[in-house]
Amino acid sequence: METRILGNDLEVSAVGLGCMGFSHASGAPTEKSVAVKTLREAYEMGYTFFDTAECYTGVNPDGSTSYNEELVGEALRDVRDKVVIATKCGVHHAPDQSLILDSSPATIRASVEGSLKRLGMDAIDLYYQHRIDPKVEPEVVAETMAELIREGKIKHWGISETTEDYLRRAHAVCPVTAVENRYSLMARWHGSLFPVLEELGVGFVAFSPMANGFLSGAYTVDSKFEPGTDYRSKMPQYTPEGFEKSRALMELLGRLAEEKNATPAQVSMAWMLCKKPYIVPIPGSRKIERLRENLGAGEIELSESKIATIDTALDGMELPVFGGSKINK
């Protein structure tokens, strides 16, 4: 499996695995033994970069809590030195699934201890501030992360859903290894950060690289998602209007997939992989066949001219507006 470097020296598989769906936001949590087995199979097939978070939790049928970090930790514990595990702090979900933001130093410190225990690790490879907390200055967050690095609790740190100003201020205090923002053919607004990332030497981890599965082409307007526990039930791309607005894009993806003897999902990620050498998509799936398919995106080559042609076509499309769904990972 091809690898990429985030920041100065964090080597990861070119395609990572977003683990959230095993316990959060994709319907009922996967049964623990099945989740652990699937995560381990992902490693065996070539994934070395796994993304989780303390707030990725769900309720099991017996009423117990499914902690995503525990699943990841159990699956990968005996190959710890061969994988990179990223987790996050600073976000909790209210009962209505709205976000509660808290990046105070005390909360970050309590969170890192909890994550280390759930993961069964001595140090976290990549620790993200999950969302910007308007109550806490970036310099304060960065200094807390610097202290955790000095103490050996974490090895690298990053920011999810950051802005240029926030990134610059935080990076000046403690170098940031990666930002993790939404990015896909349907969500390109964070592309404006690329010149800044190149200037600072920061990697870009793309969450929802297939627009929460939409770009796989596996769903239709009749697809149903569990209300409340599956965030796709409220996402604009999955509405009848969303499917209609996305018709031209899906037709374009279909043509490219046929041309490359690939799948729409693979082409949608190859577009970003071939665009910049520091972009690492982290698609999520609970199905072995999908995990294998997603990994294959790293083998597809798209020329600069082909990428430019795709971008020009996207510029002329009126795609669904994500709005508030930007926050859902």
TrEMBL record:
<keyword id="KW-0560">Oxidoreductase</keyword>
<dbReference type="GO" id="GO:0016491">
    <property type="term" value="F:oxidoreductase activity"/>
</dbReference>
<feature type="domain" description="NADP-dependent oxidoreductase">
    <location>
        <begin position="15"/>
        <end position="313"/>
    </location>
</feature>
<dbReference type="InterPro" id="IPR036812">
    <property type="entry name" value="NAD(P)_OxRdtase_dom_sf"/>
</dbReference>
<dbReference type="InterPro" id="IPR023210">
    <property type="entry name" value="NADP_OxRdtase_dom"/>
</dbReference>
<dbReference type="GO" id="GO:0005737">
    <property type="term" value="C:cytoplasm"/>
</dbReference>
<protein>
    <submittedName>
        <fullName>Aldo/keto reductase</fullName>
    </submittedName>
</protein>
<dbReference type="InterPro" id="IPR050791">
    <property type="entry name" value="Aldo-Keto_reductase"/>
</dbReference>
<dbReference type="Pfam" id="PF00248">
    <property type="entry name" value="Aldo_ket_red"/>
</dbReference>
